[in-house]
Amino acid sequence: MGGCWSRKPTKAIHDYFEDKVVWITGASGGLGEALSVELCRIVRPKGLVISARRKEELERVRKRCLELQPDLKIVVLPLDLAKLDTLPEKAKEAISAFGEIGVLVNNGGVGFRGIACETSLEQDMEVMNIDYFSGVSLTKALLPSWLTAQCGHVVQISSVQAFFGLPGRTAYAAAKHAAVGFYDSLRAELADTGISVTVICPGYIKTGHSTNAVRGSGGGYPEGHTSKGVPAEQIAIETLAAAACKQPELVSAAFDARAGRVLRSLCPPLLFSIMQKRARKELKEREGLVDTKEQQKPLLRKGDKDA
């Protein structure tokens, strides 16, 4: 891995992806769009499949990619990650388009804002289905062909919240925790098969992820700090480089978030105290945000209104 990182990130990305068919979910906006565009800016992959719910936005992203790689075959494959029963068939469609999928980037997902007592179990399950089970479903659908070929690569976009839960993010943190656990186990199981597993855990990214999150029934909740986040293009380059180096995990977050991860392991009581203070502060802010007309804001996913 050291030899890989000793090269320029763009060189590593070019060398790794030039013979790969790549499938990116949540590709109609935000990080998914940035991943698609930056990939095509650096290299002409063997093929590209882009997925999300909104076909018209996928076509827009496809056009941007073709401006960079005019001869590249790009397949637009609309799908809804909430409809788990349709995903195995979508995987078959993706494979049939090129005869293979070399790299799956599970980027599609949804955010969440609200306190646990005002969040229905149905909402918890929907966030878990989209942020966790959808990626598992697509990965398992591709595994048989990867095991036969003795190669393949799944890149899961998780979050630094996979390591500690923030107040007002119960469903989201739970799904991200689950994803890290699943892919840690999967990585170990596949260690001798030629199949790679990379988990990306970013902090705040400048997208519409916060404002487009699922809401608990209590109405307004502080939006988070995505305005202070890093550009999606930067995270995209870091993600592609980590995948190119077959890095098991990348935590790309601000110092306080990385420190929180360490505290969770070394001094849990201190982290819990910090989170309690944060919860009190956010609940006070929330009192000025609650609007009874905003009950149950419609679900918006990454790739629909940015990520």
Nutshell version of this structure?
It is built from ten helices and nine strands. Helix 6 (121-149) runs parallel beside helix 7 (170-189).
Word description of this protein:
Helix 5 (87-98) runs parallel beside helix 6 (121-149). It is built from 10 helices and 9 strands. It has helices spanning 2-5, 9-17, 30-42, 55-68, 87-98, 121-149, 170-189, 232-244, 255-266, 268-287; strands at 21-25, 47-51, 74-76, 103-106, 112-113, 152-157, 195-202, 214-215, 249-252. It is of the alpha/beta class.
What is the topology?
Blueprint: H1 2-5, H2 9-17, E1 21-25, H3 30-42, E2 47-51, H4 55-68, E3 74-76, H5 87-98, E4 103-106, E5 112-113, H6 121-149, E6 152-157, H7 170-189, E7 195-202, E8 214-215, H8 232-244, E9 249-252, H9 255-266, H10 268-287
Parallel strand pairs: 1-2, 1-4, 2-3, 4-6, 5-8, 6-7, 7-9
CATH architecture: 3-Layer(aba) Sandwich
How many domains, in number, for the residues? 1
The name of the CATH superfamily reads NAD(P)-binding Rossmann-like Domain
Q: What fraction strand?
A: 5-15%
Query: What is the succession of H and E elements?
Result: HHEHEHEHEEHEHEEHEHH
Largest sheet report: 7 strands, parallel
CATH-assigned fold name: Rossmann fold
Helix content: 40-55%
Secondary structure category: alpha/beta
What is the highest CATH level, the class? Alpha Beta
Give the strand order, joined by hyphens, for the main sheet. Answer: 3-2-1-4-6-7-9
What is the gyration radius calculated from CA atoms?
Answer: 19 Å
Distance between the termini: 29 Å
Number of strands: 9
